[in-house]
Write a structure and sequence with these properties.
This protein has 108 residues and is mainly beta. It is built from no helices and 10 strands.
Amino acid sequence: MCSRDDLEVERGRAALVDGEQVALFLLADGSIRALDNHDPYSGANVISRGIVGSRAGRPTVASPMFKQVFDLRSGTCVDPQGGEHLRLRVWSVREEAGALFLQAGGAR
């Protein structure tokens, strides 16, 4: 289990959920986003170490490996750096009394 207090604004954290690595992000607006931590372009579990930003008003994270940029809401790669458009699975986040609960969803 993870709590909101374990997260820092616009700094990723990795968590292990049912044997899968998840990258969690607390955004400046107070929302929490969760995506697969596995970067489909490099094969490394590094998305939680990416740089948070925005593109056209959408919150994003740039992979620290090859710099592909992913939409934190949909998992869609918005800048594939010349590669094919891959996406990260999105996890829904539910908060109860400060504790965060995740459920896998979205597309891979």
